[in-house]
Design a protein that fits this description.
Distance between the termini: 27 Å
Strand order of the largest sheet: 4-5-6-7-8-9-10-11
Number of helices: 12
Helix content: 10-25%
Shape: globular
């Protein structure tokens, strides 16, 4: 069962709704540089802003998933729907991709600028910095570099692992320097800082939570703090922190009332109210489209209960940052699509979703002041089409192989310091005769070649039999039968794509590539590999040599020039393509896959320009290009 459905199913029991300070006038202060006081009522009955009861009406959005140029627009969309607060994750692995190298300044990593925009727009902020966030984000926001340690344990106290908590403290120290001036007590808009995230669904170690909380205090951030959990999990595991408020995943007015009974000394809120849902590759459609939370919102507004809509605007998991779900044994692996539209009230492209006006009217009916006007929609572009042509082959762009001493056995990406992308594992065989190729284990998708000829592949995610047969791809790491060759000596190539790392549950240690061994025809594990790292990052793509020695061998980059009179938001329709990645003007839009349900990738106008725009497609299977149309919506 995936993460939020588990939290909701196990959380609630029918109880009468408790009105939190019903009938009391609520403060309408907007954040100002002069500073405010945010606290909890002594009896835990309310959040207090400048001494007055305050209803938090929050909408979640993640700056890492929104083009910087649209940050203000999305905040204004939330405000126009009746929100007075923005909740946001900081993804640790997005700001520290290499150990000790932090980036809080460039592009969508500039969290401080996003928070200042919230303040300028009269919005408060709930900060959710992890170190673990989940969020359908690769490894739940934890940096993959930690997986280079063979025995790493994640989300544990310092005594249980020598690496994780040391790295988490370093992250907290760096982030705290940015956060301190933005706290409400220092004139900023940040009301509360969340300690970890949904830990009650993972463990019950109070010492671990205390160490995360203490890391913030030692870094000069002394709260107010809060935690987030399903009601059943926080009741069973007591994963709240001393003096910290309680936020509930899947919460509503009755569950908040129940939490107040269980934890009477601090206020409670509905920390994640789900107006939509996440979608995996292979789902039968975009999930959450039929969700209507009008009844839940009415209950929250009737009782003046604080809440956060997860998500009010989902955005996009650009690049390789989309996560995945799996069971606690790392089976039933389900990677997330690139879009994080979430069927939220504000769509991926920033437009009003089908229920935006319904929720806006409902919430606005409880407020004394009229809501601000809804921002004008961002212009879109549709109706054009381009057909890329073969431009480069990955086989003509292999970087030097790693030192042979490091590649006696195939190793995961993380062993070699690579976070994402692809790795080629090459073995020169002297006595090849075909047979069953057995890999333990492929994480997550591989194409296999014998002397340059495509022989099939492996898919960790379950794909339909018809697609598997069409591509000769096996499911569930089942062996792949290789044909006999004309020559005993041949080259075996295994090109492995790492998809999203598990972001929820007990299988977080989800390394990519070939994890253990490769055998052929029942023989001993093959050793003596040549390994080529293919991160497919912006530097790699910029350095591509325009060479295609074998146009019939899959693994091609295709390029087109898209000429525009005026840039506008658009979606690139990849319906005619099989599986791969798209860059526009060097920026990675994300993955596409014929498996669906997503077949269009969002391309924001700020990443386009007047005149010629480069569209680059890397497809794992196709050698014949297909047209790419432009559309105005996700689908």
């Amino acid at each position: 069962m995936d993460r939020r459905r588990f939290l909701m199913v196990s959380a609630l029991s029918p109880v009468a709704a408790m009105a939190v300070n019903a009938g009391t006038a609520f403060a309408a202060n907007a954040p100002s540089p002069g500073g405010h006081a945010f606290s909890f009522a002594p009896d835990g009955s309310a959040f207090l802003l400048d001494g007055e009861p305050f209803q938090i009406r929050s909408g979640e959005m993640h700056p890492a998933r929104i083009p910087v140029q649209y940050w203000r627009h999305r905040v204004r969309m939330a405000k126009a729907m009746g929100m007075n607060t923005v909740s946001l994750y900081v993804m640790w692995n997005y700001v520290e991709e290499r150990p000790g190298v932090f980036d809080f300044r460039t592009d969508r990593r500039d969290v401080a600028s996003f928070i200042r925009i919230c303040q300028e727009e009269g919005m408060w902020v709930l900060l959710r910095p992890g170190p673990y966030v989940c969020g359908e984000w690769d490894l739940g926001g934890i940096p993959p570099y930690l997986l280079r340690y063979p025995d790493i344990k994640l989300r544990v106290r310092a005594a249980d692992d020598p690496h994780y908590m040391a790295a988490a403290r370093r992250y907290v120290r760096e982030l705290a320097r940015i956060v301190r001036p933005l706290l409400v007590a220092n004139g900023g808009p940040v009301l509360m800082v969340q300690v970890e995230n949904e830990y009650g669904s993972y463990g019950n170690d109070a010492t671990y939570l205390a160490e995360v909380r203490q890391a913030w205090i030692e870094a000069g951030v002394d709260g107010p703090f809060y935690t987030e959990d399903g009601l059943g999990q926080v009741e069973a595991n007591h994963t709240n922190v001393p003096g910290g408020a309680v936020a509930l995943s899947g919460g509503d007015a009755p569950s908040v009332a129940q939490a107040r009974t269980a934890f009477p000394s601090v206020p409670a809120m509905a920390g994640e109210v789900y107006p939509g849902w996440l979608t995996h590759w292979g789902d039968d459609g975009f999930q959450g489209a039929d969700s209507d939370i009008s009844g839940t919102l009415k209950g929250l507004m009737d009782g003046k209960v604080s809440f956060n809509l997860y998500m009010i605007h989902g955005g996009t998991s650009f690049g390789f940052f989309a996560g995945a779900n799996a069971d606690d044994l790392s089976g039933d692996y389900q990677p997330d699509i690139t879009s994080y539209d979430y069927c939220a009230p504000v769509t991926e492209q920033g437009a009003k979703g089908p229920r935006y006006d319904t929720y806006r009217d409902l919430i606005g009916g409880y407020l004394s002041a009229p809501l601000p006007a809804v921002p004008d929609p961002v212009p879109t572009l549709a109706g054009l089409s381009v057909t890329p042509r073969p431009f480069a082959s990955v086989w003509d762009n292999l970087p030097p192989a790693l030192p042979a001493a490091d590649t006696v056995h195939p190793q995961p990406f993380e062993t070699y310091g690579q976070n994402s992308g692809f790795v080629l594992y090459r073995k020169r065989l002297a006595d090849y005769a075909g047979g069953a190729l057995d890999i333990r284990w492929v994480h997550d998708y591989a194409t296999v070649f014998v002397d340059g000829a495509y022989a099939g592949g492996f898919s960790r995610p379950r794909i339909p039999d018809a697609l598997a047969s069409d591509l000769n791809v096996t499911n569930g790491n089942a062996p792949l039968t290789l044909p006999a060759g004309q020559d005993a000596a041949c080259v075996l190539d295994i090109l492995v794509e790492g998809m999203g790392r598990t972001n929820y549950g007990h299988a977080l240690v989800d390394r990519k590539g070939i994890l253990e061994s490769v055998t052929l025809a029942g023989g001993d594990p093959l050793t003596g590999w040549e390994t080529h790292l293919l991160p497919m990052d912006e530097r790699f793509v910029r350095g591509l040599r325009p060479k295609v020695s074998d146009p019939h061998r899959p693994g091609l980059f295709f390029r087109a020039t898209l000429d525009l009179d005026e840039p506008a938001d658009t979606y690139l329709d990849l319906s005619g393509w099989t599986k791969g990645v798209v860059w526009v003007n060097g920026t990675n839009l994300g993955r596409y896959w014929r498996l669906g349900p997503q077949r269009r990738l969002y391309c924001p106008a700020p990443w386009l320009r007047r005149g010629g725009n480069e569209v680059l497609v890397f497809d794992l299977h196709q050698t014949e290009p297909k047209p790419i149309g432009l559309a105005s919506t996700l689908g």
